[in-house]
Specification:
By secondary structure, this protein is of the alpha/beta class. 37% of the residues lie in helices and 28% in strands. It is built from ten helices and 13 strands. It has helices at residues 4-17, 62-71, 86-97, 139-153, 171-176, 205-212, 219-233, 272-285, 290-305, 315-326; strands at residues 21-26, 28-41, 48-61, 75-83, 101-108, 115-121, 124-131, 158-162, 182-186, 200-201, 237-241, 247-251, 256-259. The strands form two sheets. A nine-stranded mixed sheet has the order 5-4-1-8-9-10-11-12-13, sandwiched between helices. A four-stranded mixed sheet has the order 3-2-6-7. The protein starts with a helix and ends with a helix. It binds adenosine-5'-triphosphate and magnesium ion. Magnesium ion is lined by residues 186, 204, 273.
Length: 328
């Protein structure tokens, strides 16, 4: 991409993104971080005792997709569920802090807010504890969610469906999203058929293999798996993300494009998939050609894996990496 002209084109595209409103529907998560140091083993059991010196919360799961859209200036509404608990209130406060419209965040009384607590000592994770329910939503909550998604989708340029298999998605909710011009999904394999008919799906390679039963081990098997998903879901595009191998695009009009990964140093790959779906969606909603959308998503993912923790990439960081690539 990035000769001077392409950079001007990309800058214009980022300008257009500022006028967009995108709805993120998905499994909201609260990431909890407990930081400390270890100087002894517990007398109670053979485990380290962490002396805590810091404690914080960040947005995870589908909320991280919302953060990534905000980082490129897109206005965002969020729909999902939180529990009627302190973590749910913390989640709402963080959503508010990044200026995301919480109109679609439904409070469920029969489940906790999904929370992942990491205890980290000397920059190493000691243990993670998950509070979550993966049971399907109750019928009443499913209807409330579908109604609010239908209403919000009609006011948005695009909808992202961010699935972490916590029981949120049903065919009703996916169909409710279809009022928007562009609908994208980052599906988990067991739910993948729920997303039939959306504009674009972007599973990773392992998820693609699980969903299709095709082991991806070379170009030919990648092609077969991508083509199989396109056909099965009736989507316009399939993007398969491949970790350090970059990503591949498949389109129903015969579009094929494979891009290598671009990160210079890899610090933390978690959340890179959230960045990919956010940037693909923003670019398509801003009417970028799909090839440019793919390249920008790939640069954005490269920029976030260069940072510690789930992260976001700004237009400048995305273009900086694009420039570094082209100038060697
Ligand atoms: N080790 C890596 N080196 C370079 N780039 C990477 C690496 N891991 C991920 N990326 C970039 O991030 C993109 C998405 O990563 P990946 O395919 O791992 O998605 P994912 O499994 O959905 O990630 P996650 O679930 O952690 O959000 C890749 O297509 C690539 O551009
Ligand atoms: Mg993923």
């Amino acid at each position: 991409m990035p000769e001077a002209l392409a950079e001007v084109g990309a800058r214009r595209l980022f300008e257009r993104m500022r006028a967009l409103r995108v709805l993120v529907v998905g499994d909201a998560m609260l990431d909890e971080w407990v930081w400390g140091s270890v100087s002894r083993i517990s007398p109670e059991a053979p485990v380290p005792v962490v002396a805590v010196n810091d404690h914080s919360f960040t947005l995870g799961g589908a909320c991280n997709v919302a953060s990534n859209l905000r980082a490129v200036g897109v206005r965002v509404a969020f729909a999902g569920v939180a529990g009627d608990d302190a973590e749910g209130r913390e989640l709402r406060a963080l959503v508010d802090k990044i200026d995301v419209d919480p109109a679609g965040l439904v409070t469920a009384t029969d489940r906790p807010t999904t929370r992942k607590t990491r205890i980290v000592a000397h920059n190493q994770q000691v243990v993670r504890a998950d509070w979550e329910s993966t049971a399907p939503l109750t019928g009443a909550d499913r209807e409330r969610l579908a109604a609010v998604v239908r209403e919000l989708a009609a006011t948005c340029d695009a909808v992202v469906l961010s699935d972490y298999a916590k029981g949120l998605f049903s065919r009703e909710v996916v169909e409710a999203a279809s009022a928007a011009r562009v609908v994208t999904a980052d599906p988990k394999p067991r739910n993948i058929d729920l997303f039939a008919g959306v504009t674009l799906v972007a599973p990773n390679a392992a998820e693609t293999s699980t969903a299709t039963g095709i082991a991806i081990k070379d170009d030919a098997s990648l092609e077969r798996a991508g083509a199989a998903l396109l056909e099965r879901l009736g989507c316009r595009y399939v993007v398969v993300t491949r970790g350090e191998r970059g990503m591949a695009l498949f389109g129903t009009a015969g579009e094929r494009l494979v891009v290598p990964s671009v990160a210079r140093t890899v610090y933390d790959v978690s959340g890179a998939g959230d960045t990919v779906i956010a940037i693909l969606t923003a670019a398509l909603a801003a009417e970028a050609p799909v090839e440019l959308a793919l390249q920008l998503a790939n640069y954005a993912a490269g920029a976030v894996v260069e940072k510690l923790g789930t992260a976001t990439a700004s237009p400048d960081e995305i273009l900086e990496l694009a420039g570094a690539e082209s100038h060697g």
